[in-house]
Each structure stands twice: as structure tokens, then as C-alpha cells.
Amino acid sequence: MTTTKTDLLPCGSKLRATTLLNKLGQSLWLDNITRDLLDQGTLKEYIQELSVTGLTSNPTIFEQAIKNSTAYDRDIRAKLKEGKCDEQVFFELALADLIRAADLFRPIYDRTNGIDGWVSLEVSPLLAHDTAATVAAAKDLFARACRPNVFIKIPGTKEGLPAIEEAIFAGVPVNVTLLFSREHYLAAAEAFVRGVERRIDAGLKANVGCVASVFISRWDAAVKDKVPVELRNKLGLAIASRTYKAARELLTSSRWVRLYSAGAWPQRLLWASTGVKDPQASPALYVKELAAPFTVDTMPEGTLKAVAEELKLDVTMAADGGDCEEVLAEFAAAGIDIDGLAERLQDEGTKSFTKSWESLMAVINSKRLPGAKAA
Predict the structure, then answer these.
(1) Active-site residue, 351 included
(2) Which of 73, 127, 213, 216 has the smallest count of CB within 10 Å of its CB?
(3) Within 10 Å of residue 168's Cβ, how many Cβ atoms?
(4) Please, which pLDDT band fits residue 375 given cuts at 50, 70 and 90?
(5) Helix crossing, 324-333 with 338-366: angle to 10°?
(6) Active-site residue identified among 67, 79, 153, 234
């Protein structure tokens, strides 16, 4: 992938790479949350020492957090005894954790005038194909959080797109998730713009937060045994470069500039799924290659720590997409249907989150009794 040299990321600098990326203008968010991270002060340490400025979560993250810790057990049993269903219990637990995290990031949110300092909570994956129910859930969760710096995650599926527009119109900040291609991103951006334009027409404030999360590593995992070795771990980055070019063009388009003039916040591009799946590749591979101003990179703890140890970081993504189209042409020549794979990955991602959600509900249910072990 073609990159651009930058003086902002000096080779050999003694600053942590996480600090260098922050100085570049990229936000580093942690793709994880557990009660232990909060109780033990680890998240606060990441904010102070590793320049972490936000946080994302999903059903898989909460499943692992609750399954692998006893920190939630007492609260779970108490809430179940009150007659609450597993889903009600989960959202109360998740909101409690995310509100604490949001308060830790609130100074960053205030300092950046709402551009940074966000946490994210996802609506139930079971609603991925139900527009009306998704909108209702997004409004409810945001109201219950009662914090301005909480994103509600809505998938960029066919049914999710109108829900994104309606949520933005209702003033609910949205993290659009499960985007896998430039076309997915453009559709999510259009939904965001329509929601903001409707707010302006209705005489409402235009500044509703939104990020568009494009998944990277799943592309490479999907084709690792189907392409030549020289193409390994290059597809996700090429898709990212193609999408970044589209985002840069949108951010300076006349339509978006009119929105900014009315007080709207721009929708930022977020790199998701940046944990490397290939054990032979550097754990910092995607993060190093996705360095770009006014973007967000959310990463697991292991990736964050690996990136913090990097000392050589002197390139940024090319605004014009670099050689992404040439690289994508090589994949096409190798028999990869890029558009078809994007749709498949989004569908598989939706199903994967649904499976994790079902496992999460089972884990909560399994902790009804003291000493009970998660399934």
C-alpha cells in the first residue's frame, strides 16, 4: 500500500508510537471493556500513558468479560432475583460500565468539542434486520446512558441504514458498525448526511456525533488460503485505502461543507478489526499502515500494547488511495470477487455477533446461583 512520508512521525523518535499517532491527529480507542479494567485503574492508565481517547464494545467483548470474571456475578444474581430477563440484566451491566468509562473520557470530549472521547454500546444484534426496533432501542439506550459521549452502535445493513438516519435525526450519536467496503461506507455516510439535513430543516442543532466503522482484518482472514503468498495481509489495507480516499473526497464536498457551515460535526472514519489474525505478521501491522489524520483506530489490548512499543512510525496513508486499485486488481486476477466478499463478510459479521449475543445471554443465565460456572 502506498503511503506518504510525514515529519509528524519521525523515525527513531523516543515517543511511544501511540503518542505519535495522537499527534498526527488519529484517535486511538480501546476495543475492549471489562469491570476489572475500570476497577483496577487500567483504563485510566491507558488514557494517561498510551494516549487512548475512546472505547468500543460489542457482544463478543461483553461475553468474554462476563464469562471470564467473577466481578459481575453478584450484580447478575441480584438483578435476576428481581425478575429481570437476561437481556435487561445485560444492558444494565453494560450501561453501568460504559457510563464509568464515558466519565473517564469526558474531559477529552469537552476539550475536543465533541470530536473525541467517546464510548460505544451496541443495540441487540437480534435487531439487525428490524429498522423500527433498532431505532427504538437506540433512543432508549442513549437516554438511559444520560451521557453526551456515548455512541449507540447500529449495523450498516440494508435495514440498519434507515435506522441510522432516523437515529441521527433524533439526536442519537451513532457508531455505524459492520462496514466492509467503500460502498458500505458511502451508504452509511449518506444515511448520516440525510439525518443531519433533516435536523437542519427542522430547526434543530446539527451537531450529532457519528463514526463509520470499517472492518479490516476479516478481509485477509477470508482469503488467506485463496491467494498467492505475496498478497497475504494486503486486501484489508487496500480496501481501507480505497475507503479513505472516498472519505477524504466526501469531507471536502460542497454538500458536506454546507453541513459544517450549519454547525454539523463531520462523520469520522473508524478502522475496526485491527487485531492481526496472521500469527506470522507483526501485531502492529494494520495500525502502522492505517495511520491517518482525522480517523479513529480501535484495537484490542494486545494490539495497543504492541503498537506502544513500536519506535519506527514515519508514514501516513495516501489521501488519493495510493496503489489500492492496482492491488485490488491483483486480487481480482486471483479470483477474488471483492463486492461479493464484502456482502458475505457483512452477513457473517451479523451472524457472528448474534451467536455471541446468544452465548452472552446463556452466560448471564448460568450465573443465577453462587458458584455457578459459565457455560
Answers:
(1) no
(2) 73
(3) 28
(4) very low
(5) 90
(6) 153
